[in-house]
Amino acid sequence: MIDLRSDTVTRPTTGMLEYMLKAGVGDDVFGEDPSVNELESLAAEMFGMESALFCPTGTMSNQIAIKAHTHPGDEVICDKTAHVYQYEGGGIAANSGAQVRLLEGDRGRFNAAMVQASINPDDVHKARTSLVCLENTSNRGGGSCYELTEIERIRETCDSNKLQFHLDGARLFNALVATGQSAKSYGELFHTISVCLNKGLGCPIGSILIGNKQFIKKARRIRKVFGGGMRQAGFMAACGIYALQNHIERLKEDHNHAKMVSARLRTKSFIKDILPVTTNIIIFEVSEGTDAKKIVANLNDMNIKCLTTSPTQIRMVFHLDIKADDIQIINKAIDAIS
Ligand SMILES: *Cc1c(COP(=O)(O)O)cnc(C)c1O
């Protein structure tokens, strides 16, 4: 099976497993796991930030950040397609008692003017706007990336309105590799950043939440409340260290693979439109009269798994378990779709 449903389906590589076996571990709730401590220092250093917290999932990292930055009754500004709103089980409401203000972005990306226009006035009728959440790359935007200059403008808007600024960087390294932007420039622009280790970086589980010392102290407490205080988590943290040292540059291969497959898809009459492919995700719209579910079933019969993201949309995600040879197989299967 060639699995293009998500970049979460990867298995640890031999190198990662060997590195994991050698990991030093301790009880991380006591702060005594050397591998977790090393991963947290490494991540903080990469972003030029003070501190970091290893979390079991990206969802938990985001939800901890939102809870730390808000009070019940606050309003969080994000895109209408944002993972924090669409795919975290209503967590903003359930965990933080906050509500959302949704922006109509372009492929998941919004701008400073849209943020400015959505900030509530200081009026007792209104929810207090306290946080802006930005997603880069945007999952529902087909892996789209932001320009740094736009993020700078949004940060200025946050500063002049005393808003916190959180990055859902589940696939931030895909954006960095695709655009040549640096991790440190993101560390300067956001108050807090969450990065997934369990996506393109190829770890079995894990996410890292990065911010200043005071924020991470608060986040550590919230993580415990959420049930995310882990004990000998160093085996998993070791995978994270290995991934940060070995799996970043190779994301380029995934991006090339996505481009090669999208070039083939573009020649097919059953496809109406493909979102621009800039990283590891392809999202395409099938033509009128074509059933997206049927295309997915057809590919599945040829041992290729992908997902519909709406009745007319299909998503394919490329990752480290998809090799160059698989691209030929995928393209042949696309040619054979009947
Ligand atoms: C996958 C993902 C997350 C969180 O993922 P987990 O599966 O909880 O680790 C957060 N944001 C985005 C954009 C994602 O794609």
Overview of this structure, please?
This protein has 338 residues and is α/β, with parallel strands linked by helices. It folds into two domains: 233 residues, Aspartate Aminotransferase, domain 2; 87 residues, Aspartate Aminotransferase, domain 1. It is built from 14 helices and 13 strands. The chain has a seven-stranded mixed sheet, with helices on both faces. It has a four-stranded antiparallel sheet with strand order 9-10-13-12, covered by helices on one side. Strands 1-11 form a two-stranded parallel sheet. It is globular and about 55 Å long. Pyridoxal-5'-phosphate binds next to helix 3.
SSE map:
Layout: E1 2-3, H1 14-21, H2 34-46, E2 51-55, H3 58-69, E3 74-79, H4 83-86, H5 91-96, E4 99-103, H6 112-118, E5 128-135, H7 148-160, E6 164-169, H8 172-179, H9 183-189, E7 192-196, E8 207-211, H10 213-225, H11 234-246, H12 251-265, E9 271-274, E10 281-286, H13 292-301, E11 304-305, E12 307-310, E13 313-317, H14 324-336
Parallel strand pairs: 1-11, 3-4, 3-5, 5-6, 6-7
Antiparallel strand pairs: 2-8, 7-8, 9-10, 10-13, 12-13
Helix pairs in contact: 1-11, 2-11, 3-10, 6-7, 12-14
The protein binds pyridoxal-5'-phosphate.
| Count of individual helical segments | 14
Instruction: Give the domain tally.
Output: 2
Distance between the termini: 20 Å
Query: Helix/strand-derived class?
Result: alpha/beta
Low-confidence region ranges: none
Can you name the CATH architecture of the largest domain?
A: 3-Layer(aba) Sandwich
- Let me know the CATH homologous superfamily of the largest domain: Type I PLP-dependent aspartate aminotransferase-like (Major domain)
Mean pLDDT: 97
CATH class of the largest domain: Alpha Beta
The counted number of beta strands is 13
